[in-house]
Amino acid sequence: MKKTNTKFWIIFAVATGVVLMLALALSLVLLLKHGDQVVINSKSSNINGHVQISIGTLRGTFEVNSMSVPDGERISLPYEMTVDEGTLTLYVIRDGNVVWEEEIDSEKSGAIELDQAGTYTIYIHTDEGKGIKLDMPRPHVIE
């Protein structure tokens, strides 16, 4: 009788483990397939205003940085951006409105000019992008 009881508990433990593993795998698949925002393998730095971001996989929106522009100044934000797979949009919001945007499907460099006082927030948005890199050197005042 003791041998049968031990065998039952071993089978029960293995079956429970298999069910838990399947539930975890299914949850992960559903999260990646239907999640509103997924960010995998991201690294970012902001050293004295120089922003560098690397994202392995992005689905949704990623906040890059926020900055304030003082009254009477014009600011230029140079950027260089690449994406290995997918298309993304780099955009800037001020007071709830998009004031600048650029669609990127491989690589793009340029400058974002901000000429009104206020707080600006920079975002990246994509349905799904892979191998995303953004380099934004320190902003400078336009004379």
UniProtKB/TrEMBL annotation:
Domain of life: Bacteria
Transmembrane domains' residue ranges: 9-32
Name recorded for this polypeptide: BH3747 protein
Keywords (A to Z) from UniProt: Membrane, Transmembrane, Transmembrane helix
